[in-house]
Every structure is written in structure tokens, then in C-alpha cells.
């Protein structure tokens, strides 16, 4: 991982978007650290949209339509939940500065949340940054089993329906590899990114969040 400490620079939403267009993104050392540093990994995690895989066990879960999916109705609550300590995640790179900056990006229409609800309870979701036909996944959370996984499936369906070309996961994990995530060299990523940010895509190709059952049916028709 390549990182450069940010000490004095006042990062604005516009600076953030320019950084993303160059393949760079910010992180904090911890939730309590007010500083940020820029990251440009040697190997970049991406999920090729054409190779996205839904595990059979998750398909069974989704056929039960366990959650109501909403888009951008609770962005600030999603990023707050992603910053919380959870079993298996004792630290976080999301500090107050990150929350403020990405909240501003959301108001500008460049950051979105995919949310899983059970009644009035937000039980999982993810958020990320949109630029051209690229979406940069930032973080996800689950308060009940499978919620973040279902949110990811809905995100990918939305991206494919809206003409997106690049889903950047920054890094890969065993969890993401189950869905088709791979690592690619920085140079290869830069070429994909340069093409994607110059294209147009629609994050709202259909109304609402869609049901999990209808999303699965659409994936079958898309493949």
C-alpha cells in the first residue's frame, strides 16, 4: 500500500473527486485520529461486473425477500454504522473528517448508500462514491446475517442496469472474492479507471430499491 500523510491540506469534495479520478483515496489511521492519508495500492481490488457471482446459499436467502431495499434514504446512518466497532472489527479507518467529507459528496450526488431495512430498523448496507461510470465501494455493515451481501447484489444489479463499467473495492477480502473480486495491477486499473470516469452511467435506472426476487430474475436475464 502506498500512503502519503495529509497534514495541512484542506480536502474538499472537489479534491476528493479529482483524487478518485486519479486512483487515489483517503483513509484515517483510526476513528480518533483527525488526520487523513492518501492511498494508492500497488494491487487494486475490483469486481468485474460481467463476472459477478451470487453464491447459491445467498440466492436461497434472497428468494425469501428478507429485507426492504432503499437507496439514499439514510446515507449518514449507513456511514455511521460502517464506522462502529463490531465482532471481528475492533478498529475503523472512518473518522469524523471522513464522515463529513462523504456527507458533502452525498449532497452533491456523488456518494450513495444501498440500505437493507426490516420494518423501521436499518440492519445493513453499504456506501460508496460515483464518478462517471465508476463506483468506488467504501464500506459495508451487517447487523443481521447476509444484509451487506444482499446490499452488494442490489448495488451490482443497479450498476449493470445503469451502464456502469467499473466497481472498485479498493482491496479484496475472502468475503468479496466469493462474489468474483480480483486484484489487478495499478497500471491495468488506471486504464480501466480512465475509461470509466469519462463515460456516463445512471445510478437510478429504475424506481426504488427493487425486491430481491426480482433482482435475481433480472440477473438471470442479463447473463
Describe the structure.
- The chain contains 8 helices and 10 strands.
- The protein has 223 residues and is α+β, with helices and mostly antiparallel strands.
- It has one domain: Leucyl/phenylalanyl-tRNA-protein transferase, C-terminal domain (Aminopeptidase, 3-Layer(aba) Sandwich), CATH 3.40.630.70.
- The strands form 2 sheets. Strands 5-6-7-8-9-4-10 form a 7-stranded mixed beta sheet, with helices on both faces. The protein has a 3-stranded antiparallel beta sheet with strand order 1-3-2.
- Helix 5 packs across helix 8.
- About 2% of the residues have low confidence.
Give the helix/strand layout:
Blueprint: E1 3-6, H1 13-21, E2 25-27, E3 36-39, E4 43-46, H2 56-62, E5 68-71, H3 75-82, H4 96-107, E6 111-118, E7 121-131, E8 134-142, H5 147-161, E9 166-170, H6 174-177, E10 182-185, H7 186-197, H8 212-222
Parallel strand pairs: 8-9
Antiparallel strand pairs: 1-3, 2-3, 4-9, 4-10, 5-6, 6-7, 7-8
Helix pairs in contact: 5-8
Amino acid at each position: 500500500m502506498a500512503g502519503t500523510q495529509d497534514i495541512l491540506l484542506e480536502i474538499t469534495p472537489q479534491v476528493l473527486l479529482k483524487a478518485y479520478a486519479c486512483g487515489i483515496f483517503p483513509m484515517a489511521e483510526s476513528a480518533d485520529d483527525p488526520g487523513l492519508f492518501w492511498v494508492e495500492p500497488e494491487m487494486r481490488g475490483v469486481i468485474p461486473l460481467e463476472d459477478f457471482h451470487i453464491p447459491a446459499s445467498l440466492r436461497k436467502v434472497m428468494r425469501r425477500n428478507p429485507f426492504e431495499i432503499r437507496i439514499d434514504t439514510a446515507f449518514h446512518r449507513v456511514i455511521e454504522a460502517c464506522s462502529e466497532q463490531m465482532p471481528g472489527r475492533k478498529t475503523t479507518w472512518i473518522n469524523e473528517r471522513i464522515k463529513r467529507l462523504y456527507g458533502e459528496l452525498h449532497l452533491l450526488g456523488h456518494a450513495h448508500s444501498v440500505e437493507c431495512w426490516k420494518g423501521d430498523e436499518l440492519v445493513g448496507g453499504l456506501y460508496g462514491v460515483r464518478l462517471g461510470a465508476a463506483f468506488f465501494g467504501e464500506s459495508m455493515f451487517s447487523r443481521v446475517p447476509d444484509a451487506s451481501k444482499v446490499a452488494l447484489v442490489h448495488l451490482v444489479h443497479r450498476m449493470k442496469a445503469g451502464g456502469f463499467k467499473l466497481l472498485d473495492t479498493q482491496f479484496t477480502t475472502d468475503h468479496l472474492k466469493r462474489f468474483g473480486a480480483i486484484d489487478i495491477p495499478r497500471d491495468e486499473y488506471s486504464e480501466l479507471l480512465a475509461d470509466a470516469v469519462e463515460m456516463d452511467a445512471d445510478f437510478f435506472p429504475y424506481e426504488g430499491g427493487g425486491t430481491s426476487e426480482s433482482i435475481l430474475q433480472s440477473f438471470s436475464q442479463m447473463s
